[in-house]
Amino acid sequence: MRNDIDQELLNKLSAGLERLDAQYDDISPPSLPAVEQFLAAEALRRRHQSRKELLLFWFVALFLLMIILTVLGNAPVIYWILQAAFPLAALGGYAVTRFRQRREDGER
Fold first, then answer.
1. TM spans, by residue (predicted)?
2. Averaged over 34-62, what is the pLDDT?
């Protein structure tokens, strides 16, 4: 009984593989000039994409720099408070994390 089921499954698998092979037998590889043309077009597209991304980066960086300089010029006290608050918050978060890690290690 087990052999019959195994043979039936093997026949189904073989039939499925033959159908799959038949579908992919008709596909031929592209010609070398077509591949070279595709690669050249892809390289050009990537170059344009990287230029666009770099340009966008510079615009965003200049915009942020403009905002920071405007805040510094109009409200230097707020600027210096922000300059002090962010590093202090980061150091405080780091200290709390280290404290919790030491406490957990001590409990084990």
1. 54-72, 78-96
2. 96
In a domain, 80, yes or no: yes
d(CA 3, CA 7): 6
Mean pLDDT of the region 69-98: 88
Burial 80-104 (b: 16+ CB within 10 A, else e): eeeeeeeeeeeeeeeeeeeeeeeee
pLDDT in the model for residue 3: 80
Reading the block at residue 23, the tokens are 């579908």
Q: Is the pLDDT of residue 95 over 80?
A: yes
**Residue 84 falls inside a structural domain:** yes
**Residue found by looking up tokens 């195994």 in the block:** 6
CA 99 to the chain's CA centroid: 33
